[in-house]
Design brief:
Length: 82
């Protein structure tokens, strides 16, 4: 996919762009590669990005959270990561 730069010309900067299709494709690839392995869990490092919408996508896929602070734990729990 070509980056849709024209969609962003009118936006004020700075802003964050999250490609959720790419995120879901990456999560799909992780799940495919790890299918059949039962002795571990996958955890997302919340310190990398605590955006609630991103965490919700990760939570809906059943991934866990790697947290190092109370704020990260709160963000993960609020997003539905158990």
């Amino acid at each position: 996919m070509i980056f849709p730069i024209d969609r962003f010309k009118a936006r004020k900067t700075p802003f964050y762009y999250y490609d959720t299709r790419l995120l879901n494709a990456t999560l799909d690839a992780i799940e495919r590669e790890l299918d059949g392995f039962d002795n571990f869990n996958i955890h997302y490092a919340v310190k990398a990005n605590a955006n609630p919408d991103i965490l919700a996508i990760i939570a809906n896929r059943g991934f866990g959270a790697d947290c190092v602070s109370g704020e990260e734990i709160d963000a993960a729990v609020a997003a539905g990561i158990a």
